[in-house]
Specification:
mainly beta; 0% helix
Length: 128
């Protein structure tokens, strides 16, 4: 079992930055690929970014490419999502997720349903 706890959300203005953190406990995070997802009211959960076990491979949704950066510190069992130049459409609950995918799999194609563990989410609200 892996427990994930997100933090770092809040209310910011458009153009501001936030850094989300996701701390894992229970098992070492290096055994899992990690993803950040978000869900806005009335919308489906969507993938924002994902990162491979080692951190070598990262990928992003087109809507955040160039503004968001995912990273991980396996020694601290923590994954981060640096969000810059935030837009109002980024308002959502952000979730981190851990996936025990086999090494070498294309994590960019993994859907939300294929991840094994989820955090409780952290609210991000961007005002215009």
């Amino acid at each position: 079992q892996v427990q994930l706890v997100e933090s770092g959300g809040g209310l910011v203005q458009a153009g501001d930055s936030l850094r989300l953190s996701c701390v894992a406990s229970g098992r070492t995070l290096s055994s899992y690929a990690m993803g950040w997802f978000r869900q806005a009211p009335g919308k489906e959960r969507e993938r924002v970014s994902s990162i491979s076990r080692s951190g070598t491979n990262t990928n992003y949704a087109d809507s955040v490419e160039g503004r968001f950066t995912i990273s991980r510190d396996n020694a601290k069992n923590t994954v981060y999502l640096q969000m810059n130049t935030l837009k109002p459409e980024a308002t959502a609950v952000y979730y981190c997720a851990a996936g025990g995918f086999r090494p070498g799999i294309n994590i960019a194609t993994r859907s939300a349903g294929s991840y094994d563990y989820w955090g409780q989410g952290t609210q991000v609200t961007v005002s215009s």
